[in-house]
TrEMBL record:
InterPro entries to which the protein is assigned, alphabetical: IMPase, Inositol_monoP_metal-BS, Inositol_monophosphatase-like, Inositol_monophosphatase_CS
Pathway terms, separated by semicolons: Amino-acid biosynthesis; L-histidine biosynthesis; L-histidine from 5-phospho-alpha-D-ribose 1-diphosphate: step 8/9
Protein name: Inositol-1-monophosphatase
Reactions that this protein is recorded to catalyse: L-histidinol phosphate + H2O = L-histidinol + phosphate; a myo-inositol phosphate + H2O = myo-inositol + phosphate
Residues that hold Mg(2+) according to the record: 71, 87, 89-90, 214
Function: Catalyzes the dephosphorylation of histidinol-phosphate to histidinol, the direct precursor of histidine.
Family statement: Belongs to the inositol monophosphatase superfamily.
Obligatory cofactor(s): Mg(2+)
Pfam families given in the database record: Inositol_P
Any GO BP annotation: inositol metabolic process
Broad class of enzyme this protein falls into: hydrolase
EC number: 3.1.3.25
Keywords for this protein: Hydrolase, Magnesium, Metal-binding
Length: 265
């Protein structure tokens, strides 16, 4: 119900703002890599871990019966029907290098459906938020997708995974697309890319191999701003493939990506 959504939104905004301020103000000058995951370039910093701890601590205080899934290992089953899906730093490589495009992404699901999404981008001083059925906002302004351009005039965002074989395949797909669209962008934070579709800074975005914490909040924000999101034709977005674009551009992009086999390594 609306009271629950309002409560979850308030908590998500509070957690994202606190984590964002901590990450922005507390970034050590000599920040290094604490651990690696799927490959030597898939990195975790001490700040990813500390940010996840800060967020999960706040959630445990405010809503102790909720489930939690976090990129850095947080995993709580919960008993309330509410599950939080958290990326404590989306765009960790940007954060590591001091590039500004990184975010904190927090989604709340009720009985498996995303009802609240918050993406906070401290270096842009922007917070994107959406509540299911209530529209999307950037700070306090309504967010709206850009009307679909012709396919050949689309500015398309994408991203690449961390494992060499997957990247080689992703490069092949992007190699086919570049001559067919206006241009390609690789921002480095999937959550921000989805919000950029929501605010018309990108016409479209796609990526193979994202995890739920990368896309859960941004997916709702993009949809509430008027985008369609999905995976292969007829399928919802998933780890295989995530696509977001306004109606009119979504369909030809989805068809083209399917033809190119963008959903497999
Ligand atoms: C990554 C970013 C990046 C995308 C990668 C993600 P992380 O998330 O969203 O833009 O291309 O696929 O893994 O590791 O920085 O949280």
């Amino acid at each position: 119900n609306d009271d629950l959504k309002a409560e979850l939104l308030e908590i998500a905004l509070d957690a994202a703002h606190r984590a964002g301020a901590f990450l922005r103000d507390g970034r050590p000058d000599d920040l290094g890599v604490a651990a690696t995951k799927s490959s030597a370039v898939d990195v975790v910093t001490e700040m990813d871990i500390a940010s996840e701890k800060l967020i999960t601590g706040l959630l445990a205080d405010r809503r102790p019966d909720d489930g939690v899934l976090g990129e850095e290992g947080a995993s709580v089953e919960g008993s309330s029907g509410v599950q939080w899906v958290i990326d404590p730093i989306d765009g960790t490589v940007n954060y590591l290098y001091g590039l500004p495009s990184w975010s904190v992404s927090i989604a709340a699901l009720k009985d498996g459906e995303t009802v609240v999404g918050v993406v906070h981008a401290p270096m842009r001083a922007e917070t994107y938020r959406a509540v299911l059925g209530q529209g999307a906002y950037v700070n306090d302004r309504p967010a709206r997708v850009r009307p679909a351009p012709a396919f050949g005039l689309a500015l398309v965002g994408t991203g690449f995974g961390y494992v060499a074989e997957r990247r080689a395949r992703q490069a092949e797909v992007v190699g086919h697309l570049i001559p067919q669209v206006r241009d390609i962008r690789r921002g480095g934070s999937a959550a921000i890319d989805l919000c950029d579709v929501a605010t018309g800074r990108l016409d479209a975005y796609y990526e193979r191999g994202l995890n739920p914490w990368d896309y859960a909040a941004g997916d709702l924000i993009a949809r509430e701003a008027g985008a369609l999101t999905g995976g292969r034709p007829g399928e919802p977005l998933s780890t295989d493939l995530t696509i977001a674009a306004p109606p009119g551009l979504f369909e030809p992009l989805q068809a083209r990506l399917d033809e190119l086999g963008a959903w497999h390594d």
